[in-house]
Amino acid sequence: MQRELMNRAKELLIDETVVRVLGWKKGDLGYNHEPAYFDSPEELEENFVYDAFCGANLSKYMIEAGKQEGKTLVFLKPCDTYSFNQLLKEHRIKRENTYIIGVGCRGNLDIDKIKAAGIKGIESVDADGDMLKVKTVYGEKEMPFEEALLERCLACKGKTHMVYDELIGAGEKEEAGPKGNRFDRVSELESLSPEERFAFWRSELSKCIRCNACRNACPACSCLKCVFDSNQFDSNQKANADTFEEQMFHIIRAFHVAGRCTDCGECSRVCPQGIPLHLLNRKFIKDINTLYGEYQAGEDTDSLAPLTNYTFEDAEPGIVAERGRK
Amino acid sequence: MMYKIDQARLGELFAAIAEKKDLFLPVKKADQTDFALWTKEAEVDLDTLRTVKSPKDCFFPQSETLYNTSLEEGKLSIDAAALCDRDFVVFGMRACDVQAVKVLDNVFLADPVDTYYAARREHAVLVAGACHEPEETCFCKVFGIDAAAPAADVATWRVGEALYWKALTKKGEALSEVVKEHLTPAEESAVEEAQTQIRSIIDKLPYSHLKLDVFKETPMMELFDSDRWEEMYKPCLACGTCTFVCPTCQCYDIRDFKTKDGVQRYRCWDSCMYSDFTMMAHGNMRTSQMQRFRQRFMHKLVYYPDNYEGMFSCVGCGRCVSKCPAALNIVKVIKTMGGEG
Lengths: 326, 341
Fold this sequence. Notes:
- The complex is a heterodimer.
- By secondary structure, chain A is α/β, with parallel strands linked by helices.
- Chain A is built from 13 helices and 8 strands.
- In chain A, the strands form 2 sheets. A 5-stranded mixed beta sheet of chain A has the order 2-1-3-4-8. Chain A has a 3-stranded antiparallel beta sheet with strand order 5-6-7, with no helix packed on it.
- The mean pLDDT of chain A is 91.
- Chain B has an 8-stranded mixed beta sheet with strand order 3-2-6-7-8-9-1-10. In chain B, strands 5-4-12-11 form a 4-stranded antiparallel beta sheet, with no helix packed on it.
- In chain B, strand 11 and strand 12 form a beta hairpin.
- The interface between A and B is large, with 48 and 54 residues.
């Protein structure tokens, strides 16, 4: 598929449909591909890559790319299209400045899971089959493709693209393989006592180094100036005043993206400390589904969002509403 | 003098050290390994090659109070934070992290001496472990570091069932004395085979043969004005991951928290990737992400060596290589600027 994508991108550059291409550039370790812009067919030929290590969701880069002169071609995986749509809905991307090629996806791999399986000193990874074949300085190793999937792929929303100009390597309506219920872990946490749940989050969030990778990678975090970057505010982004503060940062962020988060999983993918941040977002999604009816952010660009729309029939959960009713 | 201890008895060694000094070592917590204070319950993890954060926190914490002020009945009082006055041991450092401390020393121990840092360094004993299974992201060799023979106060090797222990400095010898009843004499040659093995693997690693001459031979302004920065910075998300996992990044900010009747002045790590880095009253001199990105790598590869007799302020630990959310890193910068080995 990589060759097909590259050739199509070259055509679109040459016939001047687009002036630049946003895709992934081959890394030097076989798995560390980076998001990249390509301005010429030669650059594409030399560096363009598409394989199971192209986890980065390019939708967020389109906020900046969309402000440039001329059209940008962007490659989006099925789950990336939800983020793109949500940004369209929020008027953060100019659709007319974008040409989308929806790309087929069989799931993306998590290099940390490969390393956690004891595979070190990686020279190259062959991810074509059901078994990963990894060449390392310590000899050849294997592990099942499925076991190295990113967390987000274990809860795949489906292989259907929500928005595109054309598709390569994918059909118009494609099913995802059943991968289990994405709310299982949330339900598990809900079943804990408040003390146990607090201990779980405290243990996870105390690892936070306030690097802001989760926020900066998040397509829903598109504020021009984040409140945590304001020097008018005590909770600037650089340090925790106490152990509660790191929780405050993450909880405020989860509230702010509630109803807009598409569950793309970038926050957990990029966290250097492996904090399962997606669980906070999924808790909100689960509650929204329960209280306001099934809703998937990014599925479309024109529906009313549950948290920014009011009806007299709205659920009024929470202690304040309870008190008001008495 | 080489000593050894059965690895199964390391708990006793840790307890013996902790009786006399604070002991920091790699501890696994919620599935990630970082340096933390040893306790009997701590899950010590010496197998993970690299902690997420470096041991830099032990000498230069991510956040520390400098002083507190308070106002009582119209009288202002200022209480400086106490300097470190208790000896501590950092066990399980890697050769790269030890070199990183030397990079920090150059900055913090030069005039004007950073008294908070100096007090910690004075009280610290560094115990490093050889890297028996280096990874593809490692490139310490490029900076003349030998992962098979870490240059700490005490060097250790894990061979077979034993941990071998060799003091290399007076501080190291003093620590050996503290724990001598747990150590038995051993042959110097016991670790030689392991050392040869480590060095042969390091030779095979993909980044081991990078060349940095370009950064010394090219005029500074030519590197600064290179148009390659414009293409390299673009995927950068402007987060602080690289700076916060880096063992040598030493920039900090000083800020105030309001307390009930005063101010708590603290300093915390800063990141040149952040938009308010070096913000001054007139504004910020670096106004684009390209400039901020360039600053980080020019500092590591050009400005620092220019100030400190050619010493680079990268030690090849590979943390930024494995942690950057956009898969950017210093190696890609070195290669792009012409340092391919």
